[in-house]
Specification:
60% of the residues lie in helices and 13% in strands. The chain is of the alpha+beta class. It has a domain at 141-245. The longest helix has 67 residues, at 334-400.
């Protein structure tokens, strides 16, 4: 049996390593596709780019492992089935569950390693990667200009452009607010078009502007009259060049603790402590809002007045709530009734506004807490997904008996997409507080684990559920049955006299 276990493990390790690096490279390419605008044209050194990709690749490891295990198990058992190795082993009396047992133990160890990796290495890698990406985004501010938004990356300037040509980098309708005098929006430059580029020595930013004007407020002149004068200066230009020093825009490394408060940068112990603290703060705010609402808005009786029946001009303060409201209201005059109704409507509107405002604030607090709970559960779900995908891939490979990267890759991607969509949907539902954290984050496991157990049972009993001929024969049988019932049954048998 030891030789059989070693044979199965050796057959699995090779495809696992291969598929793991393939999936990891795909995830890295996806990252580059998402952040190519932030990385391109920044003049980054190879070492900085390699450091960024290394830290992000570490954060992708828990996501790449489940898909790699699914694909590797499909390839391993598919190859064994295609080369009749599974048939030979089963013919010797060894069931499929015994063949899978060494890999189950191996995948269990991988799950444990994946959990500790997610809990200890991934938070550190996330902090390093996000901090370095933040530093790269701040480098070379001319690249960060986006159409329709103000950009304040350059100290002393706020720049807005209407459109930007991605091919020629031409900027249209440029608004530049010069705040270097610290007097507000007193210096404004408008240009119909222009170009911005960094000088060859990367020490300054050159802005070449065409067809525009500049507006600048001047110091107030002393006048003998009562009216104040606000002089200004307006210059029209056909071409103007502005050079801004960029001595502080090299790649400056920020401290790693910049994003330490983010939930993705914490381990299980830190997340548990923060969730407990946030829940206590949330319950305290709920009690505070409840007391504030009931004491100041709901049972505020200090301003209620009631008139004495014997003296219509005399009023007395009500010092405690009066529950016989109809009798109290009937004792008032018509003018006082209108006043009371108006006051009541104002109180209802104030109370409704207070509840809406505080409800929005509390909902934001709940979303913040749920985000921490999502990352807490994700440490476990990504690890357990490795075992779930193995119980799907191994029996499927034994059933379809196809090796290589063709059919296994298609089936793996299908199941991974299902798992990913269910996981993301459950995560969004948890963050919106529509379902509990356990139900939402473990929904993919609840759905796919029974499928894996079912496939393992079918593979152990040599089922032919993936054989197309089986389904063709089944539908052909249904077709023949319908034909005999509706076609042959409608033909009338001739009688004796007709013969």
């Amino acid at each position: 049996m030891k030789k059989l276990d070693l044979f199965v493990i050796r057959s699995f390790v090779g495809p696992l390593v291969l598929t793991f690096f393939i999936v990891l490279i795909i995830l890295i390419l996806q990252f580059l596709w998402m952040y190519v605008d932030d990385l391109a044209g920044k003049g980054l050194e190879i070492g900085v780019l390699a450091e960024l990709l290394f830290h992000f690749s570490l954060s992708f490891v828990p996501m790449a492992l489940p898909l790699a295990i699914l694909l590797a198990s499909l390839m391993t058992f598919g190859n064994m089935g295609e080369h009749s190795e599974l048939t030979a082993i089963k013919s010797s009396g060894i069931p499929l569950r015994r063949i899978m047992s060494p890999l189950v133990i191996m995948i269990s160890f991988i799950c444990i390693i994946s959990f500790f990796f997610s809990n200890n290495v991934v938070p550190y890698a996330n902090r390093q990667a996000r901090t370095l990406l933040y530093d790269i985004r701040r480098k070379r501010p001319d690249i960060n200009l986006q159409a329709g938004t103000f950009n304040s990356d350059i100290d002393g300037f706020s720049i807005k452009i209407t459109s930007k040509d991605p091919v020629t980098n031409r900027l249209d309708r440029i608004f530049i607010y010069d705040h270097r005098r610290n007097k507000g929006n007193t210096d404004v430059i408008y240009a119909d078009s222009g170009y911005m580029k960094v000088t060859p020595d990367e020490t300054a930013l050159s802005m070449v502007l065409y067809n525009g004007y500049s507006y600048s407020d001047m110091n107030e002149q002393e006048s003998s009259g009562p009216e104040k004068r606000y002089p200004f200066r307006k210059d029209v230009f056909r071409e103007q060049t502005i050079v801004v020093p960029l001595s502080g825009f090299d790649l400056e490394r920020t401290e790693i603790d910049l994003f330490k408060s983010n939930s993705a940068m914490k381990n299980i112990t830190q997340l548990t402590y923060d969730i407990d603290s946030l829940n206590k703060r949330y319950l305290g705010r709920v009690d505070e809002y409840y007391k504030q609402y009931t004491s100041a808005l709901l049972y505020n009786v200090k301003n209620y007045t009631a008139l004495d029946r014997n003296d219509s001009t005399k009023s007395e303060k009500v010092q405690r709530p009066v529950f016989n409201s109809k009798r109290l209201f009937d004792s008032l005059t018509v003018i006082d009734k209108k006043t009371v109704v108006t006051k009541a409507i104002e109180n209802v509107k104030a109370g409704s506004s207070f509840l809406n405002t505080q409800s929005t604030s509390l909902h934001a607090d709940v979303q913040f807490i749920k985000r921490y709970e999502v990352n807490w559960h994700k440490k476990f779900t990504l690890s357990v997904a490795c075992l779930v995908f193995f119980f799907i891939g191994a029996p499927l490979g034994a059933i379809i008996r196809k090796g290589g990267l063709g059919t296994p890759a298609v089936i793996s991607v299908l199941f991974f997409v299902i798992w990913y969509v269910v996981s993301i949907s459950g995560e969004k539902l948890v963050e919106e507080d529509l379902v509990s954290s356990t139900a939402g984050m473990w929904a993919s496991t609840y759905i796919l684990l029974p499928i894996g157990i079912f496939l393992t049972y079918k593979a152990s009993t040599d089922s032919v559920i993936m054989n197309i001929d089986t389904y063709v024969a089944f539908f052909k049988k249904i077709k023949d049955s319908l034909y005999r019932r509706f076609i042959i049954g409608t033909k009338r048998t001739p009688s004796y006299k007709e013969h």
